[in-house]
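Please think about what follows:
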Amino acid sequence: MERADAAGRGAGVRLIDVGPGRARVTLTVAEQHVNGHGICHGGYLFLLADAAMAYASNSHGVSAVASGADIAFLRPARLGDELVAEAGERALVGRSGLYDVTVRAGGEVVAEFRGRTRTVPGLAGPPTV
């Protein structure tokens, strides 16, 4: 899954750790991530959190995709910040999953993300991380 994630790789997302129902990814805020206010664009924060959820939700060996998500931006991330997104599974019932992701920079919370997933058995490609 990591090798096939062209979007994450292109944005600079790196997988740090993954296990059953959990994952940790990182991204260093570079020039291409900064918006007109000089802070990290919220779309990249969302992408990072979504990537963490993707790895966590696919860690059970069945393909899962996002079915929805919300994010709260709590403080800005700046050029050069090392962002770490940590995802944890909160519930897995039938084909539906619920995940919380915290994004931090230097130990301080930047954003909180809550995402929902749906397993899709038979989705093209192996769900291996």
Summary: The first strand starts at residue 14 and ends at 19. The helical segments are 6-11, 42-57. The chain has two helices and six strands.
